[in-house]
Structures are given as structure tokens and as C-alpha cells.
């Protein structure tokens, strides 16, 4: 029996509607939803942020550039940079001078593996009233150590490259990571300097800071300050944690009673990372920003740890970064209460931001972690720091 045309059209419409209804319920999440679970329920950067608690020293007499600046403590702004990165360095300097250093005039110390050009020195000095120092890194601090087997290095970097480890085949990148991990504070130019603020070319600073951050570190007994806390690529550090455990087996006494071991070994948030990094969460302070006390790196515990790692060869056979190396050492050998989140310092190194909610900030979007792809939210490890240590 033939079905009447209107009835056929009606049943077809009903079927289409039914499938549409099912699709609405079961369709795969849209790309933005897919990453939503990685976002913090409430980013603390959305809350009004003022200055940190504790003793703060304001700008004023004693902070003039040069010998009149007797209020300054033993500290420097510090940048490892290539001559070719001059423009990016000038931009970073402009931001930091405008928001902070024009009030305090701390000296800048620039490091390079080759001499700085006259143009680099002239243009950087022109950005600040403070003293600028230009230092060449001694060869024995920079070059690949004698115990590294060149053939093995080549083979290993090939494998790392295949696993997608960024910059794995750039020898200079490995050298840079090693220098930042265990060499920079040994440079003779820093012999009498205690605190540093690390600055990379092209980074941005957004908020006015009206206290002396170095004195904040000293007067409030802080060792290390960070802004951003991220996961690392586990493929770049598969044996870093196993080597660390070997070291700890020989030196259990170096572990601080108030350590951040649970933050270092978390496997709840990203179990895959912990597994691939053989027990390390890969959470680290993003070390392109660091305000720290070099006495920690100069301690016997850190010196022994760095030497152990250096001999193990992973700065070259793998691509151990200074960020995980510094972070592991701090998490193990330092009192976690001496590590400070500088939530009030608005900062960007592509592609991540720290952007607090404060009238002192201009040019960044409050609470925005990244302006890159939404999957980058997966890399946010701040929730773990807040969970295990807090927001101090
Ligand atoms: N003088 C010198 N500086 C270097 C060298 N390699 C890296 N640097 C500096 O070391 C810092 C870190 O290097 P980057 O290339 O920015 O490394 P990164 O931050 O991991 O990588 P990006 O995400 O691409 O910025 C920057 O301040 C660079 O200017 C080098 O071979 N010589
Ligand atoms: Mg960089």
C-alpha cells in the first residue's frame, strides 16, 4: 500500500529530528569544551591582588643610581642574551624599567658566550639610569664537558628529535640549560652578588611594583620567587628523576623536613607525565622568570646535586632544562615556605601570562593564563602548587 506523500515527508522529518536530537546529546565535545577541565575552577588572579604581606621597602633616598644608592642590597638584574636579540632585550628592559627599576636603579648584568657588540652595550645602557655590566662567559663554564661522548650526543639528539623534543639538536640550547642550572652564579662578576632577577629578551612586565623586591626577599626570608608554574615535556627528562633518587639515596640528609616532595611527585593531575618522567610530576617554576638568592645554588647540597647530574650527562644525552633542575632542588632541599609566588608581578613570556587583578596593571587581561591554543591550559601546574604548598 502506497503511503501518502505528506505522511512520507512527515516521517522523514521525524527521523531527521530524532538523529539531530541524539547528536545534540552525544556529539563529541567542541574543541574549547575538551580543554575546559584543565582550567582552574577559580583562578586566584581574578581576585583583587595587592602587595605581599611582610616587610616592604619603598623607593626614596638611597635608591639613586651609582654610589649614592646605599639603600640597594647586593643584587642585580641578570640576562643571558645574544647580540642578535638586542631588540627583544631593549623591549624587556623598557617594561621592567618603567614598572620597577627606574625607582630602584638596580644594576643590570648581561652575559654572553661571545663578546657584546658596541651597539648592544650602547643601546642597552641607554634604556636605564642604572649601571650596566657586560660579561663574557668563560669557556670552561659554557663548553660541552670533556666526559660527554660526542657520538652518543648526536645519536641521542636524533632520538629526542624524533620524540618531538624542541631544540634537542641545538648544542647551544643544551649549553644554555646547563649554564642556567649550575654555572651562572659561579661567574666571577657575581662573586659578591647575592640576589638576582632573571630577565629574558622579549618578555613583558605589566604592573607597577612599588617596593624593593630584593629587600622583600631578604627581609622576609625568601629564597626563590616565581610567577608561573608549568608541566615540562617528560620526553626531555626521562632519567632526571631516577638520577635524583640515586643522589638522594647517598644524601638523604640533604632533604629539608619542610620539603615539597608531594608537589614534585604528584600523579593525580597528569598521571601520564609522572609515568613518562619515571616518578616526577614534571611541575616546575618557569625559570625564564626567577628572583632568587644565589646562596641556595652555592650551598653544598645544590653543588653536590648539580655535579651529580652533570656527570650523569643528561644535560646533553637528554634535554634537561634549568627549570626542572632548579625546581626539583628547591622542592627537595629548601623549606617550601621560602618559595614565593610573586602574584603581583604581571609577566609574560610567550605563550603564558601571570596577570593579576590590580589597578597597578596595564596591558594584560586579568586572569588570562595564555593567549595561545586552548590545549595550553593542560600545561598549567599552578593548581598543584596551590594544593600542596599554598599561595604564599
Ligand atoms: N648568549 C647566548 N644566549 C643564549 C643562547 N641560547 C639561549 N640564550 C639565551 O638564553 C635564554 C633562554 O633561551 P631561549 O631561546 O629563550 O629559550 P626558551 O625560553 O626555552 O625558548 P623560547 O620559548 O623559544 O623563548 C634567552 O635569554 C636567550 O637569549 C646562546 O647560545 N648564547
Ligand atoms: Mg625564552
UniProtKB/TrEMBL annotation:
GO cellular component: Golgi apparatus; membrane
One Pfam family hit: Glyco_transf_15
Region (Disordered): 44-66
Domain of life: Eukaryota
InterPro entries to which the protein is assigned, alphabetical: Glyco_trans_15, Nucleotide-diphossugar_trans
GO biological process: cell wall mannoprotein biosynthetic process; protein N-linked glycosylation; protein O-linked glycosylation
Membrane-traversing stretches: 7-26
Keywords linked to the UniProt accession: Glycosyltransferase, Membrane, Transferase, Transmembrane, Transmembrane helix
KW Lipoprotein (keyword) present: no
A GO molecular-function descriptor: alpha-1,2-mannosyltransferase activity
Family designation: Belongs to the glycosyltransferase 15 family.
Database matches in PANTHER family: ALPHA-1,2 MANNOSYLTRANSFERASE KTR1, MANNOSYLTRANSFERASE KTR4-RELATED
Name the record gives this protein: Mannosyltransferase-like protein
Highest classification ranks of the organism: Eukaryota, Fungi, Dikarya, Ascomycota, Pezizomycotina
